[in-house]
Design a protein that fits this description.
Strand order of the largest sheet: 2-11-10-3-9
Structural class: alpha+beta
Helix content: 25-40%
Strand content: 15-25%
Number of strands: 22
Bound molecules: 2-(butylsulfanyl)adenosine
Radius of gyration: 30 Å
Shape: globular
Length: 697
């Protein structure tokens, strides 16, 4: 897409633009080109050349220029992905060419058969195939007219789909414009697949679970569901990606020759890549004859788990478009392509019963017990079914046949129950009204789907809290493990979190399976954990709604963990991304005497409750000065600005008081500004003035 020379030129233009204090309207087109170039580096090549901060600065400069010069806005400007308001509905639109599906093959015979028929119908002795991954997402169709993206649609029934252009524009790997005209094309319809990569899917599910919501079964559902969200901003946040793999229709530009690249499928993948799309250009393989194809598919299946996104097979396409036309299609699928499906990650099993488990926050989770079944090399015999609403929605009953899916390293989920094969003996799942462990009455908060045991001394909760504390993402005490925590707890050797640091190793030595070596390892893992950074400790405490990200925000905000005892609810809500729900939970946690006692005990036992960074950065430019940010800053993210203050030895305050030296004000500043105006000693400054105080900016 970008040659070496172009890359060099755009990179030096980038540097020049970053250095400029003020970018003028003359430079608007260059600024747009530079931004498009960096989007391509980031979203298509996965190889950014500038920092997110620098990109954001340039993007904001473009926004500003366009706001000042509305006539200069173009429909394919990088700013035009952003949509205001909610989508009312998604109108039905016809595809220019029906979106067919592929016939499937599950074994070598099917593939040999496909090849034999293709050779017979074309009179060829050996066929050249293009083989590429079969992306497991939601299929889309895109229309470009005169180089501009004009429409995006879902597959729908294959003939008509839903028009989702605004949501499609949120996907940064789909260019808003592409120079099809250079290839002689005027109107072009493209097919592709929208996906969410495994990493982002995992993060998204973690967020759902942190909010007490059930996770999604697989990335495919997450992608398909996201495409139909009515708030485009929310779509933008979900980090969707798109691969395009087919030009299904085009009209030609008068007087221009159509590129010969389009004569082969591999050629069109190359053209799409050159135009800035993410096509499987680097993942495709052109092979002579079906034997080489079969070998390649088998090899590729072994790499399946190493890919960042899910694929459920390979697609084998006759490469020569003339031969494709000769082969034509049935009413369902083309005769020139076939999907070679990988081993299924779905299976059916019988729901034998339901157990109710109590988690560390007291949430009672139903767990389906299943007839053991193998999926993708793992035997599954129990699966969380989340909560009462989930059970009702899926209409799960004991004795049901259920469809199970295990997508990659995702926790297995029940996709649905097979209601068609019920024999009348299936039984409803009855939710208990008492805690299955401590027998106290269960409660459900309004608007929540989860029943809870509210007895914080419930042994099930205590043991789960200890397990969470030691877990990998928390204090990461290796060698401890769930089983050991449970064992020590049952034997009375461990009764609470501080007890981890006061274990009686002599008694443990008497237990079966504990030799000198394993005790030594356990002891040093526990000791090492005392030095874990504050954010891990905060996460490990298991405060409700406080995930790893919030824990980091909290750790950054104080010098000492117990400073939170003096934080008001408002102080907490002034911190990044902390709303009333999360703030309320943190507030109550630090108002609870037992929790404070536990934290003090941990400090006595040698755990670090201080924030190192805050301690060290005392000598900088801003030493002794305190800052607070309010409103939306023109170029900086709140966290970046706060980071700059801390890196230069300054302090961030959580609220307006006479202790505050500087209030940095952005757009839509609210009550903090009003409050600060009443205190004479506070200097109210803009972001630009703030930046002047920071060296090297
Ligand atoms: S080609 C006429 N290529 O699989 C040819 N499809 O079961 C149409 N898919 O609806 C499809 N990766 O959503 C093609 N590399 C790929 C694909 C792919 C995923 C999906 C597509 C299609 C379904 C067919």
């Amino acid at each position: 897409m970008y040659s070496k020379e172009q890359t060099k030129k755009l990179q030096s233009e980038t540097t020049a633009l970053i250095k400029k204090k003020e970018i003028g309207a003359k430079e608007i087109e260059s600024l747009r080109d530079v931004l498009r170039f960096h989007e391509h580096r980031y979203y298509i090549l996965n190889d950014p050349l500038i920092s997110d901060f620098e990109y954001d600065q340039l993007y904001k400069a473009l926004e500003k220029l366009e706001a000042e010069n509305p006539k200069l806005v173009t429909p394919d400007s990088p700013t035009q992905r952003v949509a205001k308001g909610l989508t009312k509905d998604f109108p039905t639109v016809p595809h220019l060419v029906p979106m067919l599906s592929l016939s499937n093959s599950y074994n070598t015979e099917d593939l040999l058969d496909f090849d034999r028929k293709a050779r017979e119908l074309t009179d060829e002795t050996k066929i050249e195939y293009c083989v590429e991954p079969k992306f497991d997402g939601a299929s889309i169709s895109l229309i470009y007219e005169n180089d501009l993206l004009v429409r995006g649609a879902t597959r729908g029934d294959g003939v008509e789909g839903d028009e989702i252009t605004t949501n499609i524009k949120q996907i940064k790997s789909i260019p808003l414009s592409a120079k099809f005209s250079e290839y002689g094309l005027e109107t072009v319809e493209i097919r592709g697949e929208v996906l969410i990569n495994k990493n982002n899917f995992k993060k998204y599910n973690e967020q759902l679970m942190e909010q007490g919501l059930p996770p999604l079964a697989n990335p495919r559902n997450a992608a398909a569901g996201t495409l139909r969200i009515k708030d485009p901003k929310e779509v933008g946040k979900r980090s969707l990606e798109a691969f395009v793999y087919n030009i299904s229709y085009f009209t030609t530009l008068r007087g221009k020759k159509v590129s010969s690249g389009l004569d082969t499928h591999s050629g069109s993948l190359e053209i799409l890549w050159e135009l800035g799309f993410r096509s499987p250009q680097q993942d495709k393989k052109v092979l002579e004859g079906i034997d080489a194809v079969i070998k390649h598919c088998n090899e590729y299946e072994l790499m399946r788990d190493d890919l960042p996104y899910e694929i459920d097979g390979m697609v084998i396409k006759v490469n020569d478009v003339e031969l494709q036309d000769k082969l034509g299609m049935t009413s369902h699928h083309p005769r020139w392509a076939i999907a070679c499906k990988f081993k299924a990650r779905q299976a059916t099993s019988k729901l034998l019963g339901v157990e109710f488990q109590v988690g560390r926050t007291g949430a009672v989770t139903p767990v389906a017990k299943l007839e053991p079944v193998g999926i993708g090399g793992v035997t599954v015999s129990s699966i969380s079914i989340h909560n009462e609403d989930y059970i009702r929605e899926k209409d799960l009953r004991i004795g049901d046949q259920v469809l199970i899916e295990r997508a990659g390293d995702v926790i297995p989920q029940i996709v649905k129950s097979l209601a068609e094969v019920r024999n009348g003996k299936q039984k409803k799942i009855v939710f208990p009204d008492q805690c299955p462990v401590c027998k106290s009455k269960l409660f459900k908060e309004e608007g929540e789907a989860v029943w809870r045991c509210v007895n914080i001394e419930c042994p099930a909760q205590v043991v789960e809290r200890i397990i969470h504390f030691t877990s990998k993402d928390a204090m990461d005490i290796r060698g401890f493990g769930d089983a050991n925590v449970r064992k020590f707890f049952d034997l009375g050797l461990l009764t609470d979190i501080p007890g981890i640091y006061e274990l009686d190793y002599e008694k443990i030595g008497e237990l079966e399976g504990f030799g000198e070596r394993s005790i030594g390892n356990l002891q040093s893992a526990i000791n090492n954990s005392k030095n874990q950074p504050l954010n891990r400790l905060i996460y490990a405490l298991g405060i409700r709604f406080v995930g790893e990200t919030t824990a980091k925000t909290l750790a950054r905000s104080v010098k000492h963990l117990l400073d939170f005892q003096n934080y008001s609810l408002e102080d907490l809500q002034n911190l990044e991304d902390i709303g009333p729900k999360v703030g309320g939970s943190i507030y109550h946690f630090f108002r609870n005497k037992d929790n404070i006692r536990m934290i003090q005990q941990l400090e006595k036992l040698g755990l670090k409750l201080k924030n190192d960074k805050k301690e060290h950065a005392t000598g900088g430019n801003l030493a002794g000065q305190s800052f607070l940010f309010t409103g939306t800053l023109p170029t900086l993210k709140r966290s970046e600005a706060e980071g700059m203050v801390e890196a230069n030895g300054g302090q961030i305050l959580s609220g307006v008081s006479s202790k505050l030296n500087y209030l940095v004000v952005g757009e839509d500043a609210g009550s903090k500004l009003e409050k600060a105006k009443k205190i004479n000693s506070i200097k109210i400054i803009s972001e630009a003035e703030f930046l002047k105080m920071i060296p090297n900016t």
